[in-house]
Amino acid sequence: MNVLAGAVGLIAHDLTATLGWGHARAQAEARDALGNRMQFPLDGLAWEQLDPATRQEVLGDLVVEAVEDLQQRLHDTFVDTTWPACPRHRQHPRWLGEGDRGGTAWCCPGDDAAIAPLGHCRRGRLTPLLTEAVWPP
Ligand SMILES: [Zn+2]
């Protein structure tokens, strides 16, 4: 289950970087989002019969779904209606997709481009011009 611990860290990082949340709040929020998605599929014997590669795949999909849940909730509750905002355009959120080098990345739907891997949102919500200047590297 190291994938899950890793995912909590990645999601919490992005929450902290973009919303300025404290470590504890970000971790709790990430754990909640993942917990809600993990319960159902990890119950039962079927899991025991999956090979390791399939397990990784299942977990990867669950992480994406959990982040999408979290994103939806932040939008619906007006915590941040564009979380995480696209650094190129700002008025719309990024969505999860496939990264340039594989893995899960935050993508701009307008440019159809990967902006940053999950867990690598840049700090700098308050200094947007600087953020834009540093990505892509
Ligand atoms: Zn964009």
Textual characterization of the structure:
- This protein has 137 residues and is mainly α.
- The chain has 4 helices and 3 strands, in the order H-H-H-E-E-E-H.
- It is 51% helix and 10% strand.
- The chain has a 3-stranded antiparallel β-sheet, covered by helices on one side.
- The radius of gyration is 15 Å and the shape is globular.
- The structure holds zinc ion (ZN).
- Residues 86, 88-89, 92, 108, 110-111 line the site of zinc ion (ZN).
In short:
The protein is mostly helical and 137 residues long. It is built from four helices and three strands; from the N terminus they run H-H-H-E-E-E-H.
What features would you highlight for this structure?
137 residues; mainly alpha; three-stranded antiparallel β-sheet; binds zinc ion
Helix fraction bin = 40-55%
Shape: globular
Please count the beta strands (DSSP E, at least 2 residues each).
Answer: 3
Read across the widest sheet, the strand sequence of neighbours is: 1-2-3
Say what oligomer this is: single chain
Figure out the total of helices: 4
Question: The biggest beta sheet, please?
Answer: 3 strands, antiparallel
Summarize the topology.
Elements (H helix, E strand, L loop, with lengths): L1 H18 L3 H20 L9 H25 L18 E4 L5 E5 L4 E5 L10 H7 L3
Antiparallel strand pairs: 1-2, 2-3
Helix pairs in contact: 1-2, 1-3, 2-3
The chain binds zinc ion.
